[in-house]
């Protein structure tokens, strides 16, 4: 019976922490989101020198409170689930862990102070918000669409990178060291800045020939931006069509994919109107 | 009969102010648009120091004339409608009110001078232009399309913001204070400037490692711009299909999805022209 | 018979100048394109101070040769056509005229020297290249698609302009004169530079609040770029569908718009396979 | 029999070098890719002045090792194929040759040192990666889509170039020499920087009139970016449809356009599985 009690207690905790269809579950999720947001804001403010001087001690204390809260949450997540390892090695579980480590490292290693910045990774936990139901179908829809594009996008990125290496090398030859193109990696950096149309202007061509090459790079960047857009637009359309067709399975043979206005199953000929 | 007269007068005023299918109504709308445009231009010119010195008094007088005109218009709108509160709390009504307030506030509060800038909000009233008939269906079409995208766009924006916080924090770690990345909020600002491909160049990476991280941020920004485009393109296509299909339900069986020029229902064969 | 001769001569000239399906006609078109390109290059080079010093006299002479050539061509176009006024007031005819005027004006008015820059308008004549047949269907296709977008694009541009006026005014309030946002028009210029993701960096926010507002402007610009893209993509698809459907008219009743795999006309029921 | 032996040897070598379905073939491809990547990295590092000072001799030696390796590979490719000229004049063969030449030229000509930069062209050889099977169908799909766009994209680029020449000339007139717009080619460079939304800020308008013209250029650039995107998106959709439809002609009546999962021809009713 103690066993039963423990299970009951575990079940309720699980419902609060992992589900969000009860009132307590929703409150837990909302509270967690607030904790995440405010903790990231504390990290940000602490990096502002003037604020660090004035409120450094307060920020440090808040930071420890957040660390304790998130550690407690992590432990609760472990005990309230049947297969804790599954959670630990899930994507969300790994993010939770990575977001915890920096605070503890900074106690043991003085040099690990820099790692505190990684507390910003806590923000990744914000994606738990999508567990809040309403966004789930949209998320699924978009990840399906993007998965279909991954290969085409990587071909595209490889092509762009090759282009920037070659165009950067040419520019290094054309503009020379004196004009800011100090070496090939620097020139490639310039080519990326230019082809993505970011254009900081920290390095920019000075000779007429350099300006000509730069113009070509810009026009290439302006024209090929269309390629990933076209790919993703197309894959969203494909994903949408598949999503729409899914519920139209034949009542007789169960197969799917009928035109939206078909009257008879094209696989077995049974009426779809039954 | 006086009652009747009042109603008649109210009806005519309503027709002039709220409708635009009579000659007077159209003239009123056009006159209003001119008043809005010129008043915003006066606000702009008044902010130019040299012009303010020379024509400040004139601008001030013009401003008061505009305030009186728009106040009068607002009162007329109130009296010519049966349910004035409905207008007051409609979107267009609220914009009208907000555009009026700054001028009056500046009389009572000396510090409210700054609020004069909000007179530029008058420009929002320009959207009344779309009441001029011809644009209405396009507006409806596009708002329908964009409404369908709101959720997906907000997921996208949240992802981008999370990315900028994390990438900005990493960059703060990599580039340090001395190179312009003075604190995390500043670094996040840099990440937004970079990922949106704006690239002011007021802050830009200096160390090789920083340039490498920046290149990654730029390529991410260059590739993911495709996502909102794909979403909106898809939703415009969906909205267009629905618009085309909606009025075409069969008068016999009620089912939809006929081609726009079909004469007979493809589900039951009944004529669509009845 | 002299009359007949004149007509013959006019007919041949017309064929050479206006058509391009004869050998002479093609040669004329190609020669004209070369003249246009080289004349624009002369205009460009003449604007480079060092080259102007060295070759100014040569450029001036070349310029007069081009002027004579284009004037002769314009006169030939007038005499070889039956209704010269039609040509004069056609779009291509007006461009031809506008490209000629600056050279003549510069003789009579000393101040008109500046107008010489408008000789660059000659480049507009390059679009005659599309008369060269192969591009015609593509041009027609794209202008059809873009015509369908004009209204939606103008609503979009009006919205963007209103946004920039309001965001510019807010930024003027936030950043003040000292930080480069000297007046509202200047701030609007900044807002346009930012929302279009150009980002010169000649004016950029300095205060934290200003950087926050700027970030919002950038994210807006990054997200709404998707709107015109979506519109044009959709209208290209619509134009393509119409183009594809056009040749599928029913052999019996002549009406169009059948599905690509339809066997029978949906208007009159006749077989489409006859 | 020696003849037979030679053929056998040639056949095996061919399999290793040109194919990648054997273990040795895959190892060869992977090894080659690593050699290409590392050799390009050596070229890059050698261009960094401080590294060149320290490791210049090492880089030089590595460079010669790579040259020998790639020369050996080139010779092996020639001897293991039946029609060597076919390989020499294929696109991949020409790239292989161009990537080899600079190293040899630098021995014979002192001035050819600059050509060493062209060793970066070796990176083009990376596209051999796509031979590794899995990407092939995506590559084919995308090149088909882009081929369909070439003409429309070139019309678009010609229009953009004409626009930049004219807008650049106008800006040269408006802003004058003193403000950085030193001559028309420079102004055209500025127009390209602006219309592609790169926006270095090395040249930017200073007069109010110039800022107004610049704003127009930016808005044009912001709006017309949609055009190539629309074109490519559409052509990707068309290519996708053709890819899906092509293999599905009915074995009985030969007509196409069946859904990808249809079992029976919708034109004649014959089974599609025969």
UniProtKB/TrEMBL annotation, chains A, B, C, D:
Instruction: Give Gene Ontology CC terms.
Output: voltage-gated potassium channel complex
Q: Where in the cell is it found?
A: Membrane
> Lineage, please?
Bacteria, Pseudomonadati, Bacteroidota, Sphingobacteriia, Sphingobacteriales
| A molecular function (GO) term | voltage-gated potassium channel activity
Q: Which GO terms describe its biological process?
A: action potential
UniProtKB keywords: Ion channel, Ion transport, Membrane, Potassium, Potassium channel, Potassium transport, Transmembrane, Transmembrane helix, Transport, Voltage-gated channel
A Pfam family of this chain = Ion_trans
Q: Where are the transmembrane segments?
A: 27-45, 57-76, 88-118, 153-175, 187-206, 212-233
Which organism is this entry from? Answer: Mucilaginibacter myungsuensis
Topology of this chain in the membrane: Multi-pass membrane protein
Its main subcellular localisation, reduced to a broad class, is membrane
Q: Ion transport domain: which residues?
A: 26-243
Q: Identify the Gene3D superfamilies for this entry.
A: 1.10.287.70, Voltage-gated potassium channels. Chain C
Looking up InterPro entries in the UniProt record yields: Ion_trans_dom, VG_K_chnl, Volt_channel_dom_sf
> What name does the UniProt record give this protein?
Ion transporter
């Amino acid at each position: 019976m103690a066993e039963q009690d423990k299970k009951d207690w575990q079940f309720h905790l699980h419902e609060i922490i992992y589900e969000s269809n009860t009132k307590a579950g929703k409150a837990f999720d909302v509270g967690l989101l607030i904790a995440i947001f405010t903790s990231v804001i504390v990290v940000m403010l602490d990096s502002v020198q003037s604020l660090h001087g004035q409120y450094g001690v307060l920020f440090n204390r808040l930071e420890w409170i957040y660390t304790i809260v998130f550690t407690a949450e992590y432990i609760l997540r472990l005990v309230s689930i049947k297969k804790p390892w599954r959670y630990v090695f899930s994507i969300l579980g790994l993010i939770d862990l990575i977001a915890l480590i920096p605070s503890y490292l900074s106690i043991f290693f003085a040099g690990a102070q820099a790692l505190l910045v990684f507390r910003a990774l806590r923000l990744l936990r914000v994606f738990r918000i999508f567990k809040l139901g309403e966004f789930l179908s949209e998320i699924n829809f978009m990840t399906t669409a993007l998965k279909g594009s991954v290969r085409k996008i990587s071909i595209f990125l490889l092509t762009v990178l090759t282009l920037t290496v070659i165009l950067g090398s040419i520019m290094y030859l054309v503009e020379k060291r004196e004009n800011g193109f100090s070496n090939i990696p620097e020139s490639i950096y310039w080519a990326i800045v230019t082809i993505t149309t970011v254009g900081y202007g920290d390095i920019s061509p000075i000779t007429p020939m350099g300006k000509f090459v730069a113009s070509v790079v810009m026009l290439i960047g302006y024209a090929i931006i269309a390629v990933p857009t076209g790919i993703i637009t197309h894959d969203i359309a494909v994903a949408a069509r598949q999503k729409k067709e899914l519920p139209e399975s034949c009542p007789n043979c169960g197969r799917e994919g009928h035109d939206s206005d078909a009257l008879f199953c094209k696989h077995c000929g049974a009426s779809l109107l039954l």
